[in-house]
Amino acid sequence: MSSILFIPLLPLIGFLINGLSFPKLSNPVAGIIGTIPPLAAFALSLQLFLQFDGNTQIVPLLDWISVGELSIPIAFQIDQLSLLMLLIITGVGTLIHVYSSAYMSHDEGFGKFFAFLNLFVFFMLLLVMGSGFVTLFIGWEGVGLCSYLLIGFWNKKNSYGDAARKAFIMNRIGDLGFLIGIFLLFQEFGTATYQEVFEAIKAGNGSNLGLIAFCLFIGAMGKSAQIPLFTWLPDAMAGPTPVSALIHAATMVTAGIYMVIRANVLFEMSPEVLHFVGWIGLATALLGAAIGLFQNDIKKVLAYSTVSQLGYMFMGLGASAYTASFFHVMTHAFFKALLFLGAGSVIHAMSDEQDIRKMGGLKSQLPITYITFLLGTIAIAGIPPFAGFFSKDEILAHLYHHDIVMWALAIVGSALTSFYMFRVFIVTFHGDFRGTQHQADHLHESPIAMTLPLIVLAVLSVIGGIINLPAFVGGNEFLAHWLNPILPEGSHEALEVHFASLEFLAPLAAAFIPAIFAIQLYGSKKAVPAADAEISGIQKIIYDKFYIDEAYNFLFVKPIQFLSQFFYSFIDFLIIDLLVESTGKFVKSSSNELRKLQSGNIGFYIFMMVAAIAIILAWTLKSWIF
Amino acid sequence: MYLLFILLFPLLLGSFLLIAKPAKAFGLALGGSIIELIISCILLCDANTGKLPTEFISNWIPEAGLKFALFVDGINGILILLTALLVPFIIGSTAGSEKANDAKYQGLILTMQAALMGAFLAKDAFLFYFFFEASLLPIYFIINLYGSENRTKISFKFFVYTLFGSLFLLIGLIYVYLRTPGNTPSADFETLYQTASVLSTKEQSLLFLAFFIAFAIKMPMFPFHTWQPDTYTVAPSQGTMLLSGIMLKMGTYGVIRMIVPMFPAGIANWGNWVIILSVIGVLYGSIIAIQQKDMKRLLAYSSFAHVGLMSAGMLTLSNEGIQGALYQMLSHGINIVGLFFIVEVIERRTQSRDLDQLGGITSASKVLSIGFIILSLGSVALPLTNGFVGEFLLLKSVFDYQLTIGIIAGITIILGAVYTLRMIQKSMFGNASKFSINFEDLTISEKLVIIPLCILVVLGGIFPTVVLNYSQPAVDLLSKWIK
């Protein structure tokens, strides 16, 4: 039990030490202090995982808020789902801490960076370990804060600060939905603790379940960057690359998927919401992949790819394929973290250049980065037998039986993915070097602290599929069996796919053909993506991200700014205050008039006195008479 | 006697400073305010456990049945804590400025504290009214003597505005007071509750308005707020802290202490409208704050938005709403005093509060950056900060009251993030401007103000039960009156 508390506590301590002592500690010391907590937390999580006996364990921590009948505890829940999340977060987290110790070594904010990373790990652990929706919400907003701090880490540059704010605010829009969902849960069940809520639902209690599920999903749309709340994620690439890998690819952005899987009992009761989830996922997957086609910033491509892959996960959830989606969360954590870290290694070598048009031919100078990036690319493209193939195929297999139209569109998305990933890969690593002489002189493979995480993640990206290898190809479907107790019956079964069927061949074609096409176009013909000015037509619209940011700006930002001015200058100053002031002026001017009566002229006073007496007398007489 | 002490001690010390004008005014005032805090804490703890009496009653105007009666319960205990807690920080915030050893200034702050304490301690409605009005004098002089340009006009406007509101309160009070049973009428709160709550609906509705307008102006609530941004901006920092940190809570306290138990029928009649008006104020204030350039004015509108949510929550009459409002009064006081102090710190060094003229400060001072961020997070109600607890309870109460109003009020968590993060970015991040280029790190005394406040923000977010459990019995008692 005590070891459970240590898992989130260690990163918190790491945060406090590095945060309070920055900038006094030297970089190596700060790096070690920052890296030990996630590593130790990983060891503890692994121990918990290996010793887990199948029974959900609740560790009460704090009676947090209690008012009248309302009581909100903070407690941890250790079960099949949280254990796997713990392993992903601390495992990938540790690798990224190691990587950062080299990547950030020249940064003056080194200690601060590790403090923020540790704080992030703390909140992320809180998010997955919480035993109820409120604890989930604490972690949820906490990781949002860390995301804000880390996106805007280089805060001298205003555009980075803008990206950070955008991320926080868009997430807050989602969080409002989440919060309303929590309020509704309290109204329906008087509690927001998972076990109590889900048992009540299973017992057939509670109405409004669809609305609750919908509100919670709004939160997921924000955190996991789904339409319409996705535009913050590409901008979030302003943060240092390890941040993109950890927060904006492997862990935080999958919190929305975690939430839906966690609340599967609730979502299963609301088929129309699940339907909605699926279609939002599909639309996001296609949009993200389409925009990714023509981006030239290596991190932007990966960002849109993440948006798109998250869409796949939600598509899976929409088809109630919880295991498949979680499988994809895991493999995506491996290969997308790998790709981001690989991109970081490239950017590091290229003296902070991110435009793939100015790279090319890096494979000889960065052999390890090259090989590992290639493995990541193959994995995400869905080429067997790499990890991404199995997890994505499992989602596709469920979609095939769920909704054939969705399946077909998902295959299209798959094809786009394969194309844009191979495009980035080839343009970056093959062909001729297109950078400056200065960059060419400084090209170098990254140090071992950076390449080691790449290698580990590459291995996982290659073999990660065995976690849930379907039985018909000789696997034991470990993940499906493991998650079985917390999922609705039937949803965990991996579907059998026949080798010679359309269902099997179409995804393969979607993986291979665009890859070959991209290799042809950018490799053999050595085409280089066009300069910004030469892009035109539909391609320009896609390149400019369908002008969605501009539309939001026009629809929301500008009107609010206008309202702000209008309220301030017009209503506050001209209407309300003028009313107040004129009341004051009226009083003042009337008192000015009245003051004239006090002229000091005794004759006038006596006259007034007599007149007043006369009036009073007349008044009294009137009542006598009548 | 503890009750009497915490009222008289700041009054006597303040008067001494005003009259004798000793040279070491800062030390005296700070020491005194810390003693006041310690005694208040002892009182609150021991009165709660029954070791100390919870009342002090003596005759005031026996012919009229008015008593000089002080008391402490779970509700005003929070406000007493707030007042005792914040004044040392407010006095401490003068350290290093020319006001530190200005005996008159410190004396005014302490007499202000006494008046505020009096209003919160009073058990007799006229005594409350007396202190409610008396508090106007020191703050008027603080603004009028130490404010920036335009102070005469603005302090006068503030004075007249609030006085105007209180007149209705006085008339309403007299009306209820005259209706109390017995040979001599009484203005004891309990008696007033019993008397007022059985008045006819028509009477209660009118009385509700009379009472409410006074408190609405004090808070302030939309659309009675136009005195506030100017006053907050013109007042010296400590004046702004007193106004926003403590004084506006007289308004919200008045609603909980008097309106809620006295006029159930009045609330049934008007409560819905007031809640709607409050929520309008929440959005209106937040939206205006988004474009403000003057940090003080921005915070003034943000404070206005926060108070709107409190008044909406209270008038739902639910346990969560009232507890949330009480907790938010405490949190808001801590956060807003901290934030105004940060503005003061920045202004001392740059002579500017204009967001367009600032930037890049974060690299100059670590404590200032962290402090600013923590206090802001409290203000935007991030979980595990004090602001979240109050805002969560308040939003939940409004949401339970009426779904649509609750959702609309909830937009505040988005808008709050918009204006707060903009303020942080434009002042702290980016490149330094010519105003902020040679920004010096904080002095020890400045750190001693910011750091404890930040610790309170976090502690208040993790252990709110300490305070919530303290006020719960009194709120339960109040709920009985409501029923």
UniProtKB/TrEMBL annotation, chain A:
**What's one GO MF term for it?**
NADH dehydrogenase (ubiquinone) activity
Supply the NCBIfam families for this chain.
Answer: NDH_I_L (TIGR01974), PRK06590.1 (NF005141)
Task: Indicate how the chain sits in the lipid bilayer.
Answer: Multi-pass membrane protein
Any Gene Ontology CC annotation: membrane
Q: Which Gene3D superfamilies match?
A: 1.20.5.2700
| Enzyme kind, highest EC tier | oxidoreductase
| Record-linked Pfam families | Proton_antipo_M, Proton_antipo_N
Q: Name one GO biological process term.
A: electron transport coupled proton transport
All copies of the NADH:quinone oxidoreductase/Mrp antiporter transmembrane domain together span 134-417
- What is the originating organism of this protein? Sandaracinomonas limnophila
**Protein name per its UniProtKB record:** NADH-quinone oxidoreductase subunit L
Tell me where in this chain the NADH-Ubiquinone oxidoreductase (complex I) chain 5 N-terminal domain is found.
Answer: 64-114
* Entry's localization field: Endomembrane system; Membrane
Chief place where the protein resides: membrane
Keyword check for Oxidoreductase, yes or no: yes
Q: Which PANTHER family match?
A: NADH-UBIQUINONE OXIDOREDUCTASE CHAIN 5
Q: Where are the transmembrane segments?
A: 29-49, 84-101, 113-131, 137-155, 167-186, 206-222, 243-261, 273-294, 301-320, 326-347, 368-387, 407-429, 450-473, 504-522, 562-582, 602-621
Give the enzyme's EC designation.
Answer: 1.6.5.3
Keywords assigned: Membrane, Oxidoreductase, Transmembrane, Transmembrane helix
TrEMBL record, chain B:
- Keyword line: Membrane, Transmembrane, Transmembrane helix
Note whether Transmembrane helix occurs among the keywords.
Answer: yes
Q: Which family does it belong to?
A: Belongs to the complex I subunit 4 family.
InterPro entries reported for this sequence: NADH_Q_OxRdtase_chainM/4, NADH_UbQ_OxRdtase, ND/Mrp_TM
State one molecular function term (GO). Answer: NADH dehydrogenase activity
Which protein are we looking at? NADH-quinone oxidoreductase subunit M
Location(s), subcellular: Endomembrane system; Membrane
Q: Which Pfam families does this UniProt record tie to the protein?
A: Proton_antipo_M
Q: Which residues form the NADH:quinone oxidoreductase/Mrp antiporter transmembrane domain?
A: 122-412
Membrane topology term reads: Multi-pass membrane protein
An annotated GO cellular component: membrane
Q: Does the keyword Transmembrane helix apply?
A: yes
Domain of life, source organism: Bacteria
What processes in GO biological process is this protein linked to?
ATP synthesis coupled electron transport; electron transport coupled proton transport
Instruction: List all membrane-crossing ranges.
Output: 68-91, 127-146, 158-178, 206-227, 239-260, 272-291, 298-317, 329-346, 367-389, 401-421, 448-470
